[in-house]
Amino acid sequence: MNTTTRISIAERLGRGFGRGWRAYARGERLVSGRLVSSGLPAGVAVALLWVVKLVVLGVLLYAAFWLALLVVAVMAVAWAAQRGDSAPADDYSFTTLDELRNTPGYDPNLYNDHSHERYEDD
User: In terms of Cα–Cα distance, which of 99, 102, 106 is closest to 119?
Assistant: First the structure.
């Protein structure tokens, strides 16, 4: 029997997320410190960082909107194609030439029906 304790996948993911968050916070403090050391007031540096965060959030939401719109369009096309397959065939499917000749508006010149009495050869 193995007595070593193993951490779960959830704990591993949580630790990884925590390390990433700490690295992000450390980088933000570093950027803020550099902005302040270059002569920018601390309040302006904080505001500038918030503006950057909001711009990044806006870009992500914009991309997510268009991605969601694309997914909805693909689903609508797939739904329409699926419904189109179950639709009945057109009403003008003929098996013999006599059935075709009995349809309203039949013109033998359009079908090159040489045996019909109204066919005119130009």
Answer: 106
Q: What share of the chain is helix, strand, coil (3-state, %, to 5)?
A: 65, 0, 35
Output the pLDDT for position 117: 61
Verdict on whether the full-model pTM lies above 0.85: no
Residue 29 to residue 42: CA distance in whole angstroms: 11
Q: What is the DSSP string of 33-64?
A: HHHHHTT--HHHHHHHHHHHHHHHHHHHHHHH
Cα dist from 8 to 5, 13, 20, 71, 87, whole Å: 10, 9, 18, 34, 52
User: Do the beta carbons of residue 45 and residue 35 sit within 8 Å?
Assistant: yes
Residue ranges of the domains in the chain? 9-87, 88-122
Run means of pLDDT, 10 residues per run, the chain, 122 residues: 84 97 96 95 95 97 98 95 66 68 70 66 68
